[in-house]
Design brief:
Number of strands: 7
Radius of gyration: 15 Å
Strand order of the largest sheet: 1-2-5-4-3-6-7
Mean pLDDT: 87
Number of helices: 3
Structural class: alpha+beta
Low-confidence stretches: none
Strand content: 35-45%
Largest sheet: 7 strands, antiparallel
Shape: globular
């Protein structure tokens, strides 16, 4: 199976940015195969496989990468996306919503980056530019 347009749009943002490990993940996206999709009623999990010999992103320290949200046609609240990486290789894309049933014909209107509001690690705010260090779990020295 191949990626849906919704999955591809989310993945493109999740692996975007100036970082060597994200560059490795971008290479993996180009050769990923979808092994199965699990619909949860409030989102989905898309599981991946990669060809033997795929180069791992060994420096990914935060699992999952989860700084991408989006708007889906017919849903009043944003959806969240998480990219699970196992041993430096793409493993699973997760998408979730909070208060509705996942629509059968989900169409992504837009995706965007988020990061914590300064001083409040629980609240997230949309940002125009990705904070790669935060997304990958790095903290400023």
């Amino acid at each position: 199976m191949t990626l849906t347009p919704l999955e591809r749009s989310a993945l493109d943002l999740l692996v975007g940015g100036e970082d060597p490990d994200l560059a490795r993940l971008r290479e993996q996206v180009d050769s990923v195969t979808v092994t199965r999709r699990d619909l949860t009623g409030v989102g989905f999990y898309t599981h991946f496989s990669l060809p033997l010999g795929a180069s791992p992103a060994a420096g990914i320290t935060k699992a999952p990468i989860a700084d991408v949200y989006g708007e889906v046609e017919g849903l009043p609240q944003p959806v969240g996306f998480s990219l699970w990486v196992k041993d430096g290789l793409l493993d699973c894309l997760e998408c979730w919503i909070h208060d509705r049933k996942w629509p059968d014909d989900a169409e992504l209107k837009r995706v965007y980056y988020v990061r914590p509001v300064s001083g409040d690690q629980g609240a997230l705010v949309e940002v125009a530019t990705r904070d790669v260090r935060w997304a990958l779990g790095h903290r400023a020295a």
